[in-house]
Amino acid sequence: MHDRIDARMRELGLELPPPLPAPRSRMRRLQFHERLIYLSGNGPFRGPELIYAGKLGADLTLEQGIEAARLTALNLIGVLRGEGVALDRITWVKALGMVNSHPAFIDQPAVVNGFSELIADVFGEDRGLPARSACGMASMPWDMAIEIEAIVAVD
Amino acid sequence: MHDRIDARMRELGLELPPPLPAPRSRMRRLQFHERLIYLSGNGPFRGPELIYAGKLGADLTLEQGIEAARLTALNLIGVLRGEGVALDRITWVKALGMVNSHPAFIDQPAVVNGFSELIADVFGEDRGLPARSACGMASMPWDMAIEIEAIVAVD
Amino acid sequence: MHDRIDARMRELGLELPPPLPAPRSRMRRLQFHERLIYLSGNGPFRGPELIYAGKLGADLTLEQGIEAARLTALNLIGVLRGEGVALDRITWVKALGMVNSHPAFIDQPAVVNGFSELIADVFGEDRGLPARSACGMASMPWDMAIEIEAIVAVD
């Protein structure tokens, strides 16, 4: 069910972070509708611990922002896996990358690329290239550096 | 068509605000696609009057933000009802809570919970727990405290 | 395939800007899922050149913001056309207008109307009135004045 994706992640030296705790709010980490799965906004956590806090352009370097986006991508994959979604059968449809930004920071695409590169590398160009938007937020929950929500489709 | 939801709202002591005026822009308050309904961003209005204006972390208390999110939830329900959608037959799929935020405000989830708690209480945990994102905006139309857009599915 | 829309654009004196270069990131300008097309966030570019940079309420006038939204609308149409989508057969389902905003700017709807008016004029009220949200961003990629993402449905 995950064999191809698991092998690819091992090949890339990627490991899923520990599972996230249950949401503190009355919401789902993902919701199904027909063949679509809507993923709630996720951030750069390792289990319960927020790893990257602060704003790009003020508190964090671009490199840290990219790492935060990579960790967020791994959490999104982890959420899908934790819910029993067959990773071998999904296609990434849409992603919204919300970057915690100082008003003068304008390089959100480079930050969100941390997510996009990882997803494309793991899922391949056929299934891992969603439509995407990147934008700069005034502030974010728990001051997290980035939040990414996504929609995937299951074959 | 709304019997179960109406009864539940009475039980909770909730009342829909007066209907919103027609949009000032050339847009729809909701748009149908197959079994999905896309709801435009709504805010804390009572009919034509904006009730909660200003930024969290500067102009408004957390409690006011939560009340703003609750009023917005009621407006979203009101829009569905006003368009003749059978409230007994909808499932909340996705919500995006955009909180008008001072750059240092990081408690957007607690604000958006005003929406989430109400929707879960009225529609039940089976149908009223969408995927969700919460984020902090630099500024908002008419300075409204919060804007929430959502997607619901009809059975 | 585009006859009706082409005629209408000529009638309105509208011309598509030169095609956008390929995305610099590993993403798609649009992604299909069944009858839906998800359009990535687009901005006020003319080919590779960003035409409107800066924040509303600080660097740009409302009129410039509206022009930026119009140009963005034309780019979205251009992306659909460039991918061979039959413009005569699409319906606009949802749009999110993200306006690069000074914290005190609160007239995002008037800016996004530049997009909405053009889409409604070209595609007609039946097909060109999506659900919509407008919001104010702290900052934007390449400092672009506006970014709009959209979902359209194909008959």
Entry summary:
The structure is a homotrimer of 155-residue chains. By secondary structure, the first copy, chain A, is α+β, with helices and mostly antiparallel strands.
Task: Tell me what the structure shows.
3 copies of one chain form a homotrimer. Chain A has a 5-stranded mixed sheet. Chain A has a two-stranded antiparallel ribbon with strand order 3-4. Chain A contains 3 helices and 7 strands. The relative contact order of chain A is 0.25. The first copy, chain A, has one domain (3-18, 29-154): 60s Ribosomal Protein L30, Chain: A. Chain A is α+β, with helices and mostly antiparallel strands and 155 residues long. The longest helix of chain A is centred in the middle third of the chain and has 21 residues, at 62-82.
* Rg from alpha-carbon coordinates of chain A: 15 Å
Placed side by side, the strands forming the largest sheet of chain A appear as 1-2-7-5-6
- CATH architecture descriptor of chain A: 2-Layer Sandwich
Quickly give the structural class of chain A.
alpha+beta
Secondary-structure element pattern of chain A, one letter each:
HEEEEHEHEE
Overall number of domains of chain A? 1
CATH class of chain A: Alpha Beta
- The residue-averaged pLDDT of chain A reads 97
**Largest interface in this structure:** A-B, 27 and 37 residues
Topology:
3 copies of one chain form a homotrimer.
Chain A: H1 3-12, E1 30-33, E2 36-42, E3 45-46, E4 49-50, H2 62-82, E5 90-100, H3 108-127, E6 131-137, E7 146-154
Parallel strand pairs in A: 5-6
Antiparallel strand pairs in A: 1-2, 2-7, 3-4, 5-7
